[in-house]
Design brief:
15 helices, cell membrane, transmembrane transporter activity, membrane, transmembrane helix, cell inner membrane
């Protein structure tokens, strides 16, 4: 009797995969949260700290999505921190010196980010210079540009711009006791959407006679994720801001790119290029075009991250973006992306970014010296990649 060995590719809008690797990453996140909740005497999960966690790490979540796509294709981008600083400098000059409308400045920031991405994509895709070299040069070039643009700090932005990263929806449709009603509604919609998309994906897979996860495992996953969403909704709805605007932005980015990587030809081409470049070329994939647009996309996300970071600080400074590339790369590898390319999910990168964010906030609450924070994050990154390599070695032997 023959058995079907193909596996259905997860296509849920939430992007949460069904591999045991991702279950392990989610379990690690939960354990780290519980650990710091205990070590901080319950302060980590105070409602205002939960919203601060999102606000402070929104840039990592955004950059990690773009970096994941670059890494899956077998490249790396070392310039994202400098690009964020340079685009932030453009935003500061436009609004502080020329009094440009904040929303026009945001649009210009995204365009500038795209142009920078196109510049780097040209060298990688059409000239053939390795991405490591191109983006290493970009890291130096755009850090210099940032220092030229904002030799002095630019501040005094309009409240509408500052509220992008510092405001929230609290009170939009009233309150349910101490909880913001709009945030509660969003949480309920999220849980219903998760259940519906998971069941629909399972039905589609079965109709195509593809392998599906056991029903018991699916129910455990659904219950666990629903509880996590419910808890997060409660904490956020209890905060002073309710649902932060920046969380809405991050959520839309996650939904869009989860769909892009799981449901489009472009997403499949990215995986194919990272998995086997020679085979991708033989199959007719325009690898130059895909690589070019990968870096354009990374530039756009850098522009968005620059908007978020500049809004959060309320000022544009040349030193912005320091080590952002390391945070984004670490989030991807902790989230299960393969060093060699071809493997990785948006959901994994997001979980990795949250792990980095929880480590940052937990260690800060505990007043751990910043130097030791770097040590801890470095060790976590090495252990995560080593764990992945060991698992691959065992699979190869099997």
């Amino acid at each position: 009797m023959s058995t079907e060995t193909a596996t259905a590719k997860p296509k849920a809008w939430g992007g949460f995969g069904t591999t045991m690797r991702e279950y392990g990453i989610m379990a690690a996140l939960v354990l780290i949260v519980i650990l710091f909740q205990v070590l901080t005497g319950g302060r980590l999960l105070q409602p205002n700290n939960v919203t601060s966690l999102v606000q402070q790490n929104a840039y990592v979540l955004i950059l990690a999505v773009g970096m994941l796509m670059v890494i899956v294709a077998g490249h790396i981008d070392l310039s994202v921190g400098s690009v964020v600083a340079a685009v932030g400098g453009v935003i500061g000059v436009l609004m502080a010196d020329y009094h440009v409308n904040p929303w026009v400045a945001v649009a210009i920031a995204l365009v500038v980010g795209a142009v920078i991405g196109a510049w780097q994509g040209f060298w990688v895709a059409f000239v053939g210079v390795p991405a490591f070299i191109v983006t290493l040069g970009g890291m130096l070039i755009f850090r210099g540009v940032a220092q030229v643009l904002v030799g002095r700090t630019r501040a005094g932005f309009e409240d509408s711009f500052v509220s992008i990263s510092n405001g929230g929806v609290a009170g939009w449709v009233g309150f349910m006791g101490d909880l913001d009603a709009f945030t509660v509604i969003v949480g309920i919609v999220g849980i219903v959407g998760l259940i519906f998309s998971t069941l629909r994906r399972r039905m589609v897979a079965r109709s195509r006679r593809l392998e599906v996860e056991p029903m018991g495992l699916m129910l455990v996953k659904l219950i666990g994720l629903s509880v996590l969403i419910a808890l997060a909704t409660y904490w956020v709805a209890s905060s002073n801001l309710g649902l932060p605007y920046v969380l809405v932005i991050v959520g839309l980015v996650i939904l869009l790119y989860s769909w892009l990587m799981g449901n489009t030809v472009f997403g499949r081409h990215v995986y194919a290029i990272g998995g086997n470049l020679a085979a991708a070329k033989l199959s007719g994939i325009n690898t130059r075009k895909v690589n070019f647009w990968l870096f354009v996309n990374m530039g756009v996300l850098c522009g968005l991250a620059a908007v978020v970071v500049t809004s959060r600080a309320g000022a544009a400074v040349a030193a912005a973006g320091q080590n952002y590339e390391l945070d984004a790369i670490a989030a991807c590898f902790i989230g299960g992306a393969a060093v060699s390319g071809g493997i990785g999910r948006v959901s994994g990168a997001i979980i990795g970014a949250l792990i980095m964010g929880v480590l940052n906030m937990g260690l800060s609450i505990m007043s751990v010296d910043p130097s030791w924070q770097f040590v801890v994050k470095g060790l976590v990154l090495i252990v995560a990649v080593a764990f992945d390599m060991i698992n691959k070695g065992r699979s190869a032997k099997a």
